[in-house]
TrEMBL record:
The gene is alaS. Belongs to the class-II aminoacyl-tRNA synthetase family. Binds 1 zinc ion per subunit. This is Alanine--tRNA ligase. It comes from Puia dinghuensis. Its main location: cytoplasm. It catalyses: tRNA(Ala) + L-alanine + ATP = L-alanyl-tRNA(Ala) + AMP + diphosphate. GO terms for molecular function: alanine-tRNA ligase activity; aminoacyl-tRNA deacylase activity; ATP binding; tRNA binding; zinc ion binding. Catalyzes the attachment of alanine to tRNA(Ala) in a two-step reaction: alanine is first activated by ATP to form Ala-AMP and then transferred to the acceptor end of tRNA(Ala). Also edits incorrectly charged Ser-tRNA(Ala) and Gly-tRNA(Ala) via its editing domain. Residues 2-491 form the Alanyl-transfer RNA synthetases family profile domain.
Length: 491
């Protein structure tokens, strides 16, 4: 059985053999882009090449990119731990061709991209052909988008026509916004159902339909149009290939597992959690198993993001990390019955695991563990009281038909006990309640109007640790609004 390290290496070696230059992962935190807090796809760092603002020094590149999908356009947080293949942080393997009309032979397009995807999956990784199917853009008349017949014809060279499905604009057309570069994509799915299970479903050949064992692994995007303000499409003079394959899903397929968490990317962390909490993970759907998966997942998001310079805080990107961390704390506190800081104990193991792939974590492992520990301790100081308060609030409303937790209650939990709104929402849902989100936001706004103090933190949000590792945790400070902030200083 191939290890995840071998699988990653084979991807990169394969594309080197096809003339690609390997580039490092960009940081998971995005500094200079107001539209994006975190890297959510391999292509982010190449945006300027697609927009034509810059020219790539290499026509063909490949890499593994640290991605985070917990906010904005891609937010998979609610899925994580509940299903077995959406992570907060994951590695996106990718290969790119940046077209140059002056030198067309340097790049490649649909023919090569499709042939190479197929070659890699079948000849290098040995995934059986009859386990795979692909989707191709069907076209969209209302939006004047043509069907991708070229991709269809290329696939027909490799795979039986019944395994080529047509997909809609939602899944098979990529665009950055209402205008700008765009194009169709073709996605590769793997069907990991047992033969018996497949055959039992009459007529069901190959549709994903969110079946937990039929998963999308690879997206190949062909950036070939520029969409103008009037909605019309212009062919781009420079056509580009942009692909992304989730490493964790690929490894799951290659290691013959039914869950990403059963692969060697996660089993080490889960075993360590088992040892610490004295409970067993059984890969099931129960809440205790969800908690194990959430921890194994969130640890990565938190650790890699801090290592890339985003400290937890009360605003913007820093608050996204704090939210994920508090969500993880609540899972072990409530469902693994562990009442002390836990995540920080797992950081050294994770750092060692990724030492050669993402050395920035190992280089700062002590600092990351320290930040995580302080964060855990701070939240554990108010969590128990907050959970009791929330119980009381829900008990008082139990008789009501609406089962709606008012915005003022959600705000109290946020302001006094440090409960991020999505955590309150999660606990509410577990108890059959919903939260009055607009009411909560109105309370937040009122607080902001009352005090401008919180905005002062914005400028302290960001520090580049890799360039400037001399940062020290100095303690907590309570704002007058009762909001706790963590303070660091440069040393
Ligand atoms: P899905 O439909 O499963 O949510 P997607 O269509 O949103 O995936 P893409 O944006 O096409 O994903 O990203 C390319 C690849 O990255 C996917 O084919 C998948 O292998 C991987 N991927 C996407 N989101 C996640 C995630 N949250 N966790 C792990 N891998 C992911
Ligand atoms: Mg998705
Ligand atoms: Mg998809
Ligand atoms: Mg996709």
């Amino acid at each position: 059985m191939m290890t995840s390290a071998e699988i990653r290496k084979k991807f990169l070696d394969f594309f080197v053999s096809k003339g690609h230059t390997i580039v490092p992962s960009a940081p998971i935190v995005v500094k200079n882009d107001p539209t994006l807090k975190f890297t959510n796809a391999g292509m982010n760092q190449f945006k300027d090449y697609f927009l034509g603002n810059k020219k790539s020094p290499h026509a063909r590149v490949a890499d593994t990119q640290k991605c985070l999908r917990v906010s904005g356009k891609h937010n998979d947080l609610e899925e994580v731990g509940v299903d077995t293949y959406h992570h907060t942080m994951f590695e996106m393997l990718g290969n790119w061709s940046f077209g140059d009309p002056a030198n067309p032979a340097a790049g490649y397009f649909k023919k090569e991209a499709i042939a190479w995807s197929w070659e890699l999956l079948t000849a290098v990784y040995d995934i059986p052909e009859d386990r795979m199917y692909v989707t191709v853009f069907e076209g969209d008349e209302a939006n004047k988008l043509p069907r991708d017949t070229e991709a269809y014809e290329e696939w027909k060279k490799w795979i039986a026509p019944k395994r080529i499905l047509l997909g809609s604009k939602k899944d098979n057309f990529w665009e950055m916004g209402d205008t700008g570069p765009c194009g169709p994509c073709t996605e590769i799915h793997v069907d990991c159902r047992s033969d018996a299970e497949r055959d039992a479903v009459a007529g069901a050949t190959l549709v994903n339909n969110d079946h937990p064992q039929v998963i999308e692994i690879w997206n190949n995007v062909f950036i070939q149009f520029n969409r103008l303000k009037d909605g019309s499409l212009q062919p781009l003079p420079a056509k580009h290939v942009d692909t992304g394959m989730g490493l964790e899903r690929l490894v799951r397929v290659m290691q013959g597992k039914h869950s990403n968490y059963d692969t060697d990317l996660f089993t080490g962390t889960i075993a360590r959690v088992e040892a610490i909490v004295g409970k067993k993970y059984s890969a099931g759907d129960g809440i205790q198993d969800v908690a194990f998966r959430v921890l194994a997942d969130h640890l990565r998001a938190i650790s890699f993001t801090i290592a890339d310079g985003q400290l937890p805080s009360n605003t913007e990107a820093g608050y996204v990390i704090r939210r994920i961390l508090r969500r993880a704390v609540r899972y072990y506190y409530s469902y693994l019955d562990y009442k002390k800081p836990l995540l920080f104990q797992l950081v050294p193991l994770l750092a060692a695991q990724f030492k050669t792939v993402f050395p920035e974590l190992d280089q700062q492992a002590d600092f990351v563990a320290k930040v995580v520990r302080e964060e855990e301790e701070a939240f554990l100081r108010t969590l128990e009281k907050g959970l009791r308060r929330m119980d009381d609030l829900m008990s008082a409303l139990r008789g009501s038909a609406a089962k709606l937790l008012p915005g003022s209650a959600a705000f109290e939990l946020y302001d006094t006990y440090g409960f991020p709104i999505d955590l309150t929402g999660l606990i509410a849902r577990e108890n059959g309640f919903t939260v009055d989100q607009p009411g909560f936001e109105a309370e937040m706004q009122k607080q902001k109007d009352r005090s401008r103090a919180a905005t002062a933190i914005d400028t302290e949000d960001w520090m580049v640790l890799v360039d400037n590792p001399l940062v020290e945790f100095v303690g907590y400070e309570m704002l007058e609004t009762n909001t706790q902030i963590v303070k660091y200083r440069k040393i």
